[in-house]
Amino acid sequence: MALNFCVVSIHSCPGEKIGLNKAGGLNIYVTNLVNFLSANHNVYLITKDCDNCDLNFLKSNVKVIHCNPKDYNPKNVLPNFDVIISNYWTSGIFCKLNLSKSNAVKINISHTLEYLKKEHVSGYKVDLARVKVEKENFDFFDYTLSFSDLESKLLSDKYHVPSQKIIESTPGFSRDLFSPEALTVARKKIDFVQDGKLILFVGRNDYLKGIDIAIDAFQKIYNEFESITLGIVGGDYGSDSQKIMEKKHSKFLYSKDIKWFGSVPHDELRNYYNASNLVIIPSRSETFGLVCLEALACETPVLFSDTGRMRDFVHIGKTGMISEETNAESFSMNIREFLKNEKTFIFREHYYEKISKFEWTLIFKKLTSQLIK
26, 133, 179, 359: most buried by Cβ count inside 10 Å? Predict the structure, then answer.
């Protein structure tokens, strides 16, 4: 029987360009969730207004409601929902204000907990006002999704969420989008014709994503290799903060080999993974680690910080490396080690066993089976 689902994403619209402003992994999650649900159910997506919105990748039967959250009219004609799925704490506020009278099963997905940042960055100053809102959200919703054991522990210990209200789930990836291809072929597709090494960073220009660590680590090893490039996908290219960062490094020789690719459509991202020798993920905090998963699906080795679920995906020493410290010194040392021993990193057939369980279809089938009983 077809149910009525309402998916709420107020933090950002899935139609925004990934890697710019607030658009990142949350958008990818919402897009895949909505498309999966719409195959068998009626789906309404309530999301914020945005400029240059492109929702062509959503299935045609998804009903999209763009709104200004501050001026939303709760009297909008909507069906009786069976399930409401809220994404991020700002969507939780919206649901409490506008959908509280619904008898639907209400699901909260935090994506990033405020206290989780403190776990990964000891000097991080917790925003107690946000924590208060998060706690209120957890009280309001029937269930909250957890993407890791650490998140479940924090939900229990810091937010006092009862265990029966916590559902374990994860983000995922699409095998149709992420699969291996010859490096030379991929480089032609992204118009990168150099024969040297390409080290890739994928993410927003955000302190917690560690783009500064990526650039500083690259600077430390730059003179040691004849031909090496740091590629940056996303990085809020064109924004004031990105221009300031680019100008800061422009007076140094290594800056000529920093390639800003800008925002890349998600269905083209595999070309950049496949064109690279190594993907680096110097995140100071991660809830999961989507970039790591996608890169591995393309059989591109990864170097990552010890955050999120990335240890679960990687055969250390075979498909990737872990940096014990999340700083430029440690990352540069590991990049150097990788490039000297690159041929020892081999994706054998069984590597896929570690990541196959994270395919979107499997993730959402399991989740919906728990929600629809």
Answer: 26
